[in-house]
Automatic annotation (TrEMBL):
This is SCNNG protein. Belongs to the amiloride-sensitive sodium channel (TC 1.A.6) family. SCNN1G subfamily. Keywords: Cell membrane, Disulfide bond, Ion channel, Ion transport, Membrane, Sodium, Sodium channel, Sodium transport, Transmembrane, Transmembrane helix, Transport. It is found in: Apical cell membrane.
Amino acid sequence: RYSSMKDYLSELDKETKKALETFYGFSEGKSKVRRSADEWNSTESDFFKHIPLLKFEDFSRTVTDLRSGQKRKIEGSVFHKDSSIVNSGDSNDIIGFQLCDANNSSDCALYTFSSGVNAIQEWYKLHYMNIMAQIPLETKERLSYSVDDLILTCFFDGLSCDKRHFTRFHHPLHGNCYTFNSGENGTILSTSTGGSEYGLHVVLYIDEADYNPFLVTSTGAKIMVHDQNEYPFIEDIGTEIETAAATSIGMHFTRSRKLSKPYSDCTETGADIPVENLYNKSYSLQICLHSCFQKAMVDSCGCAQYAQPLPAGAEYCNYKKNPNWMYCYYRLHEKFVKEQLGCQQICKDACSFKEWALTTSIAQWPSAVSEDWMLRVLSWDKGQKINKKLNKTDLSNLMVFYKDLNERFISENPANTLVILLSNFGGQLGLWMSCSVVCVIEIVEVFFIDSLSIVMRRQWQKAKKWWNNRKRDQSGKPPQASDPERQGHDNPVCVDEDLPTFNTALRLPLPPDSPLPRTPPPNYSTLRLETAFTEQLPDTLEVGQH
């Protein structure tokens, strides 16, 4: 609530209005008349002392200081916050501020903006975070909107809902935010039918008159659909809804899963990432990047940046305790954007994630014929709390629902596995070489197993020969021919180390001093002549000499 924060922001708002009057010559309720530097309050402003606002006179380094009105040359690196392209319009439109190292005043950096709106908002936001960092969390929650103030009516799945279904969490810049169906109380609501009648239907109280005019310049609300275990980065990917309108958001749910190593460089749970999760939610790439930057901020600047969770043992930055934190923060953020901090190299995508595709449609609400009675009834319902008649620009009608209950699942599968590889290999061999698994086994046997056995056998023969020679040398006796253990392949005449064949064995000479082997003739009974006749035939008689 801006009204409840005015006591903390009164000095900052006063200096911001002075800056607008000096730069652009206007103030609230007065004509456009530029103020001179002499009309400034004689007391020096701490806000302009820490971050002086400057206006470029030309594209050189000549600037005009807002408070003193003096022109001077500046030194240091120039960073264009709106874009990497220098503004090509009138140089008088370029406004920025200078940040210097508190320990070395000559080390400065100038941050420029092509629009005065962006420059004033960035300058205001820095001081706003510095002030809010010094206020206790309980006080900030009390000064923000309660769920009863924010939500006028609530329906889900055709039934009424109330504040018991909403969980509060405090956002550093937006204040109190509320999560519907967070599941922290142990109960998760579900719907069994698609369509707008069975989704979430709420009417929000925006209270446009109580907005901070310098922190935000748009009116409405931000919403985000997310899983119960997912942290809502509502400032990054939130959907804005406008006032005096009925916003219908239809959803399609998609669950995606990527393959991890070796197919991609994603992480399953983030346990393998050397970055502490400061959000106490399931891992995501955004959580890792924000946590990594916050850790680098604490290590480099000695304090934590206010817009992100506080690490253990650290405290938020403010220039009373940390006068150098703004310069350190901008320098560190510049390295982060240029991917020189190492966070983009350390953090990885999550392998599994959920996403909701949103389709938004807007209609005028309330209609001209129903505006009168509807505003009267809502004003009567909340009259005791807001003490005024509601205006349609203070209200926003929101419907969030599933278009259908079909869940789309996207997963990655490997194009080739070991089984598929072997199948393709065997198919190609059979197609082009008529080769089967048995053929491959035989080839392996011939070229590998048989070759190995031959090599091993030759090594065994050499080792055996060496062992026999060693035993003979130790005994000092020559080998005896009558050695019963001597076999044909132990013939010392053989010089070939391979076993002899049958033909080569027949041609081997006898070893010296060895008796000639004798083989007795065969004793075959078939060689004996048996007389088959009792008398000798005449024609077989021997013929003598006449």
